[in-house]
Queue: 2 jobs
Job 1
Amino acid sequence: MKIIENYNLADCSYFRVGGKARYGLELKEENDWEQLSDLIKDVNPKQIVVVGAGSNVLFLDEELDALIVKNNYTGWKNDGGKWLVKSGTMLPQLAWEVAKDGYTGIERLANVPGTVGGGVRGNAEAYNQAVSNCLKKVIWWDWKSGEVAMNKEQCGFSYRESIFKRELDGRGLIKEVEFEFVSDDPDRLLDEIRKDKEKRQTSQPWEPSCGCFFKNVYLDEENRKKLVNTFGEEILGNLKLGEYFSAGRLIDLVGMKGYCVEGACVSEKHGNFIINNKQATTRNIFDLYLTVKNAVKEKVGIELENEVAIIGNLEK
Ligand code: EPU
């Protein structure tokens, strides 16, 4: 494993935008982890940026003064329902293999385009199935001390959150994840994956994007009041306090669907997708993100929180 200079960031983001990072390295083999601690020992941890598939990240700077650690560490070992998975493995590939083998627990994530490590960090979820549901253990790699085994309780999972995104952010990366899945009928599971794919094709765009840009809105008393004051009681339907209101629907309701800043547009299919329509620049995407966030804040009073990580200097 070696350090690469002028590492290309556009290749590391599904938005397909970004300049160069000063340095990059790619983790692939078991041996790479041993070398990693040595290679980064003089680097300021604040300047290390871990990237998986790049399906949830927007790079801002043209020149990023950072070391990118790209996770290409893929594969798994399985014994019945127990799977020990390397964190760079793509979720769709894992979900498909697990279903084909006749195990349930991750099949609804077969169309979520991220790595297992990224998915666990952000507790990715589709159709009420979260990546943490069948998770047993995480092998965390700390920049300073190397491998640390953590059980599920220690991972602090909640909606789109985990300890890896909060307290451990910037202190290492997930190396491996152990799951325990439950036996099921492979034909039923593979059929469900196909149906989800069709559903996704009708409700979500195909153009380059990073999936949902914002987190859904937690329905507490305050947000409930803001939604009802703006749109009337019926907007909530059967939604109860403690549940989430779709950010995509909210962006749709304030009339932002289809709005563009040059090549960056809010998808016509789903309000929570910012798509790179025609050679958008990082700036276009960032400006559109701010415009959408401000429109929701002004019209409804709700402050949307990002799901996509924005990396770089906001002042530039
Ligand atoms: N809706 C609208 N207009 C829109 C978008 C949605 O009216 O522009 C309505 C839909 O018709 C539906 C409701 O809002 O009645 C909910 O929409 P959807 O089923 O698409 O769910 P969501 O809450 O908007 C979440 C996840 C998606 C995930 C889907 C399906 C978040 C932020 N988003 O979206 O995840 O694919 O459920 O499980 O939690 C992602 O994380 O990148 C992502 C796309």
Job 2
Amino acid sequence: MSRPADNDRRHELCLGIETSCDETAMALVHHGRLLAEVIASQADVHALFGGVVPEIASREHYRMLGPLLDTLLGQAHVAPGDIDVVAVARGPGLLGSLLTGLCFAKGLALGLNATLVGVDHLHAHLLAPGLEQELLFPALGLLVSGGHTHLYVLEDAVTLRLLGRTLDDAAGEAFDKVARTLRLPYPGGRYIDELGQLGRVMPELFPRPYIDNQNLDFSFSGLKTAVATYVNAHPAMLPPPGCAPQTLLQEADRYPGLADTCASFNYAVADTLRIKTERALRQARHVRSLIVAGGVAANRRVREVMTGVAREASLTLSMPSPRFCTDNGAMIAWAGECLFRAGLHHDCALDAIPRGQTVPFDYLRAAGQAS
Ligand code: KG4
Ligand code: ZN
């Protein structure tokens, strides 16, 4: 990662700030190119409690934001005054966590006379593959993260239409809750992925939830319960509490059925995502590509299944590399740059949007931009 050549700087150096959950992340993007990124994960702190503790998350963001900015600027050999756009995740997320990021971003934008752009965290996830390949619009977007399982049509980089959403647990939440049942550490999605690679899929072991309807919504809570019931009936598969995941991966055959349960649950989630995505594609026939993004897009079986869906539909597939699937600052900076280029920005009235609420499209338009 390097500093942009001075003659390449056309006043669009964009800083992205992400504090919506338990990662404090920042990145600098210039014309779609990632210059530098930093991330401080709080996963170890929250793992002690088996899930994110909001008050601790806010304090950790507040503690980390300043030092991370210094590190980022040092890495990119950029002075604060070089920043033209300050993009910040404004929700949905944990309110206290978002507020730390928003206050920091507003102060920076004011102090540096930079443009402030509030970014919908979900929108940023969907645009993330654009850091590595050109996105083709219109696109069908499947966002699968810890808090959301949403299907969208993206008419262009800044125009999104929601087609379907999770009615209860999101896919990532189901992964994390099943992982907890299996005594895997939080967040357990990636351990289920890894253990599942060692196991055998039993396609009929768990149901594909909420598919016998015509809609594009999701519901994963019944699947989570089905796994819990199965595990209760087969307790020999449970590792001892606190067993290190690396040990578990090396000694998986000591826990009969554990790897097969992970493989079969993972299969049920991926197959459900496939069924609803194919249904959405039958409705949105004008799309040219399929975007799959969010933390669960790092899952190997989900990637494999979605590769098949795109191939069958003759669509270009855009999935971020695993490091851009989970929360990161680069996706916020890049989405901020796309919005800024479309003439959209905010002023200091920008508000944080908590989990469960829809992020409004309340951008101000640069002079001369049509509404
Ligand atoms: O997008 P993300 O980082 O945060 C939210 O916006 O929610 O997603 C985090 C979620 C967690 O539930 C985590 O367990 C899940 O993504 N995840 C995975 C994998 N890597 C992360 N789930 C399944 N397989 C993975 N490899
Ligand atoms: Zn996220």
